Amino acid sequence: MTDHNAPAAAGQFEFLYNGRPVRSAVGQTLAGALHAQDEHILSRSFKYHRPRGLFCCSGRCPNCLCTVDGEPNVRICITPAAPGMKVESQNAWPSPKFDLLAVLDRLQAFMPVGFYYKRMYKPRRAWPIWERVIRQIAGLGRIDRHNSGGRYEKLNLFADVAVIGGGWAGLHAALAAADAGADVVLIDEQPELGGHLRHDPDLAQDAWAGMLRQATDHAGVRVLTSSSAFGCYEENLLGIRQGNRLIRLRANQVIVTTGGWERPLVFENNDRPGVLLASAVQRLMHLEHCRFAGAAVVVTDNAQGYRAARQLVAAGTSVAAIVDVCPGPPEFAADIPVFRGHTVVAVRGSRHVAGVEIAPLAGGPSQSIACRWLVQAVGFTPASALLYQNGCQLTYDPACDHAVVVQYARGMHSAGAVNGTHDPHAAALEGRLAGLAAAATVRPHDVSLAALLADARRRLDDWQARRATCAAQYVAESPAKKKFVCLCEDVTEQDLCDAVAEGYANIETLKRYSTVCMGPCQGKMCQAAAIALCARETGRTIADTGVTTARPPEQPVPLGLLAGRAVRLALVRRTPIHDWHERAGAQLTDAGDWKRPRVYSSVEQEYDAVRCHAGLIDASTLGKFDFRGRGAAEFFEFMYPNRFANLSVGRVRYGVLCDEAGILLDDGTISRLQDDQFFLTTTTGNAAAIDSWFRWWLAARPGLDVRMTNVSGSYAAMNLAGPRSREILQPLADIDLANAAFPYLAAARCIVAGVPAVVLRLGFVGECSYEIHVPAQFGLAVWEAVLEAGHHAGIQPFGVEAQRLLRLEKKHLLPGIDTDALSNPLEAGLPFVVRLEKPDFIGRQALERAARRGPRQMLVGFRMPDGFAPEPSSLVIHDGRPCGRVTSSGYSPAAGAAVGLAWVPAAIARNGDTIQIQVDGRLLAAVVHDAPFYDPAGDKLRS
Amino acid sequence: MSPEPMWRTHELKDSYDVVVIGGGVHGLATAYYLARLGITDVAVLEAKYVGFGGSGRNTAIVRSNYRTPEGIAFYDLSVKLYEQLAAELEFNVMFSQHGHLTLAHNERGVSGLVERANMNQWLEVDSRVIFPEEIQELVPELNLFGHCRFPILAALYHPPGGIIRHDAVVWAYARGVDRRGGQVHQQTEVTGIEVRGGAVEAVVTNRGRVKTRVVVNATAGYASTISRMAGVPLPIETHPLQACVTEPLKPFLNAVIVSSTLHVYVSQTDRGELVLGAEMDDYASYSLRGTLGFLEGAALHLLELFPCLANVHVLRQWAGLCDMTPDYSPIMGAAPELRGLYMTVGWGTYGFKAGPASGFLMAELIATGKTPPRLEPFALTRFAADRLVGEKAAASVSH
To answer: Does A156 touch chain B (CB under 8 A)?
Structure first.
């Protein structure tokens, strides 16, 4: 530890780094604090376990990935330090300074690109052993099995204009748009606005502070700092991470002013700790109050390198040389020797930079310069990922050596360094122009805006005509092996050359084979060099080589953030009568998102109550739809295979929905309450799917007078069933329930227990029963009133378990349980719902064909002579092959035997046929039973 | 020592015995097995680069625990071919058979698993239903006993299932085709198919016209477009399917985990990345763009299974195109009314795992002129003949 590196700010605290306390100051990042403590090896690389230290200081490169408080792969260079934090190095054992697997670095010759594809597969049993070894050493961070993350939240925002990047161009864009009347959101990933002006003080213009104040004070600008826009999705939906908050911002216009990141050079040992990007050095000096003890060499091709050198000198570092890639005679800049037309070819030093080798680009002997730091300022790669993501077209422009937008996607704009415009004056002009153009789209008829726009465009054109550039050569020519193109995956220049020679010449194939651009930085550090190398090796131009696809997220995003709080608050739907069920001690079961009573007392008791007295079941979970309009009957004629045009008012009819292939989707009831008003029910599980199914077909009939409302949640429903149900309900209802007045399949709107209701006379469980639908808020009251009224008649609530048995005795099927994606109603025992004489309906063609050819398989009832019920999904075996399955089964008191439903080949589906069911490896015989097991004539439900 | 090229580049000849359209696993495997049967005058035409489409976008799960006898027999052949592939093609395709677990969270789900287990066991495919205690031994990180909305009740455990390095499979087959005398033409886009007198005559490409009597449509995403060039409509609807991958973590998850109820599946590669996906998008589209909604949904559901992954970072997301048939089973065989047109299409969300079997059987069909029994159930004519193959229920999220 050195005293002169002590942070300047007051308010110090400690965090733990690999178990050791480290001093830090408020406002400092973890990486800044570690640098100040001379901690320079922060991690080990993915493949060769080479020492790695701070490099980009902008959260882009993989070098500083650590596990922080149990969160793996945290970029500590952008993570503010906090008291008591636990920071642990990754991919190093026992420590990043001394790592046993560093031996892999010496084995590079044995691990060329794609070596794992060429070895370890012979003999076949060798691979699982090798794989076990690989899985021991692969990966970076480790998950903590007991850490389920922090608290997350989501926020939805809307804006006329979103500006991504609060640098010089972004500030101008935001203010121009807001001044023109647009509602602007300005997003920046740093804790403060300003972009690179924050850490490059020589650039900061006098106007900067004023601009900042204007932006933060402007009523039309909402500023989101520490917010990273990681995705720009279709229709300008931005995904933004702000700490533990996911912001979904829908913007009419998006202005991308994301700037760029510095491009690293490729030379021998270019990954040594001590090699840094100039912007990293500037961030550490100006934002973190860090110093760089010892000598530094700056390699550059632009003014930023010279500024960085001056700033280093001012901070006490001795700059041994400036290596300028641009040609020219040697000279001195403020006493620093400048080597023009030179580049860095190698770094010396095994654990940290000890010196650099530089050589003329034109060829000639190299020379060594001793130093501790190598600072690179050789230009920027535009951060254009968001532009690519949202469909803008970019083309490589050799003049500026990066991709430029040639065609914007709708509502997209860009300005500043992301366009390659580094000059502050020009960036400001571009930003202003983009802001005005975006605002003009939102406020298209503003004349004064058009004039401002034209003026800005003219001034920008003038400036662009005058600019000039000098591009660096990114890959130093030398035969050295350890020239890393990709820091994440340890991919060297040699690796890429070999891969191209092996035939992986397409840039995407090259990526997948060599893994370049596939690591944590997703190509931010390596893509430009990889493309340049691919172009060089294939003899193509960089433009023809293309780029790899920019895929979201632009910055890695935690799963917890994406999931939001909902993991702990998963949707549970409860019926209006739910609390009563809980008080009654019901055992609950999941039915989709709903909770339903499975059983209250015992299935036997509940069964007996329904068969002998009366039972009441909560049916609120059914899907319920209100259809109105003169075209409704016609619509149902098309949707359902059976007739509905002839359904009388006051009647309810069973219906099944089929798809185009005649496959049974769902069943339910359709009641005609008035001539142009229908009430539909669907099964619980399919309610949502049927909703979209109806809407899908309605969308194709814009002229039809049909209005559909999903009222599933608005109504509570209950089914009162049993021989005594009429005498229980009659005193509560204001209509005559006598069989003659309100027979089986009657439907009516009436008053039940003082509440407006729809009552349907149905028979799912095989008894006289009434399905009562009432507004949800009265559900509990009506439920209690019915139970009260039935108390003396022996009424009992019953759950789905008893209901299933009751309906099984009637052979009433449950869609999805007794049917699958091959079941049509003809074969499922419902031929009466298919009316092929109708002109057209969904599935007609398929059902007609099925009717012509006759059934292949049938859903049949069966009874087991020996009383044992095979569990659902047991196979039906015929001719020594599985050719069917049991779908429902149980012991039927009515039949006095185990009974069930099963799909069997048509050849053995006649009444009395014997079928073989596989149970625990044995075959048991069962007998096909045509009629319902209970009340075959249906007298009970009609009584 | 200079590296040996995987495949050569050729001038496109003006005629071939067989032209295979599509340089993914199905097309390349078909060409490879054709060459193995001695038919080497074969060109594989790929519009982009080998593995651009579904073969490079799938999540590389291989399994044979299907639901129908037809499906099980077919995929079982594929698993067996995959097991031999590295040795046969001398390229390590990294087939990791660490097992495949399909989770059930409700009674209906358990019942579906029991049915598949019964059917699998009947056909001697290794799978069985296991319960939380045993699941925990296989995957200790899984939330089996903690608070969760839909507790895990059981799983279908399929030990031979696992993941494979999909790109390696594509490259290995491409090299196999090249070594046996076939030609792989990348950047070669088919723009038309010429038909005369009820037979295929030539294909037209951006590099010129190629005469041939046999065309194999082995494309995905645009299978129906290609087929229409020959006047053969296909009952196919194309939907995007999305996936994403996390940053590399020290490997902890060996088995593939699938939950249809939660619409999510996940596996961990040998590099340490978690690969996760969901159901395909429910709207038809050719879009290859990922959505934010997908990421949110997949993350939510994954964290229900693995709460300890909340801090893990998603690195990138992508989409592929799935050609869906009405019964969620592929279409393989000869076109019914056009001589010389063959197809292995409609591979939905389950194509990659089928590549070797599809190529193997298609090659046999083309070489012998007879449809192998295992291909018969998948003929295009099944839709008109109302003989669907019922994998819809078992497919859903279990790609």
So the answer is: no
A residues 42..61 contacting B (CB < 8 A): 46
Question: What top-level class would CATH report for the domain B96-163+237-322?
Answer: alpha beta
Domain range annotation of chain B? 18-59+166-235+327-394, 96-163+237-322
Write the residue in B3, B92, B247 that is nearest to A73 by C-beta. B247
Same fold for the pair B18-59+166-235+327-394 and B96-163+237-322: no
Cβ–Cβ under 8 Å, residues A395 and A388:
no
Among residues 114-143 of chain A, which lie with CB inside 8 Å of chain B?
116-124, 127-128, 131, 134-136, 138-143
The b/e string for A466-493 (b: 16+ C-beta within 10 A; e otherwise) is eeeeebbebbbebebebbbbbbbbbbbb
Q: Averaged in consecutive runs of 10 residues, what is the pLDDT profile of chain A (943 residues)?
A: 44 93 93 95 94 95 94 94 95 90 89 91 90 91 86 95 96 96 96 90 78 92 97 96 96 97 93 97 94 96 91 96 89 88 94 96 92 94 95 90 92 94 87 94 81 80 58 71 94 95 95 94 92 94 91 95 78 94 96 94 97 98 97 96 95 96 94 97 94 94 94 97 97 97 97 98 96 98 98 97 97 93 93 93 93 94 89 93 94 95 96 94 93 95 91
Buried b vs exposed e over A630-654: b needs ≥16 C-beta within 10 Å?
Answer: ebbbbbbbbbbbbbbeebeeebbbb
Q: Which residues of A touch B314 (CB under 8 A)?
A: 553, 556-559, 562
Peptide bond into A553 cis (omega under 30): yes
Look up residue A777 and give its amino acid: Q
Give CA–CA dist B175/A615, Å, rounded. Answer: 71
Which tokens go with A96? 């990043």
In terms of DSSP H, where are the helices of A245-382?
Answer: 278-286, 303-314
In the chain, the amino acid numbered A18 is N
Residues constituting chain B: 399
Judged by DSSP in three states, B319 sits in strand
Residue A294 · residue A369 · CB < 8 Å = no
Looking at beta carbons, which residues of chain B come within 8 Å of A498?
A: 3
What is the pLDDT, as a whole number, of residue A8? 45
Domains delineated in chain A: 12-110 (3.10.20.440), 153-261+382-465 (3.50.50.60), 266-376 (3.50.50.60), 572-622+714-811 (3.30.1360.120), 623-711+824-852 (3.30.70.1400), 856-943 (2.40.30.110)
Residue A253 β-bridge partners: A161
- A234 to chain B, any CB pair closer than 8 A? The answer is yes
Candidates B119, B295, B316; nearest CB to A882: B119
A767–chain B nearest CA distance, Å: 26
Distances (CA, A) of A639 to A650, A667, A823, A833, B211: 21, 12, 17, 12, 48
> Which helix (H) or strand (E) is A614 found in, with range?
strand A614-618
Q: Which of A509, A511, A803, A853 is the best substitution to test chain B (most B C-beta atoms within 10 A)?
A: A509
CATH topology of domain B18-59+166-235+327-394: FAD/NAD(P)-binding domain (3.50.50)
Choose among B107, B112, B249: nearest Cβ to A72. B249
What sign results for the dihedral spanned by CA atoms A642, A643, A648, A649?
positive
Please give the model's pTM, rounded to 2 decimal places. Answer: 0.93
Is residue B382 a contact partner of residue B388, using CB atoms and an 8 Å limit?
yes
Q: pLDDT per residue over B245-275, tens digit each? A: 999 999 999 999 999 888 899 999 999 999 9
Task: For A722-769, give the secondary structure using H, E and C.
Answer: CCCHHHHHHHHECCCCCCCCCCCCEEEEEEECCEEEEEEEECCCCCCE
- The ipTM (two decimal places) reads 0.95
d(CA B73, CA B376): 12
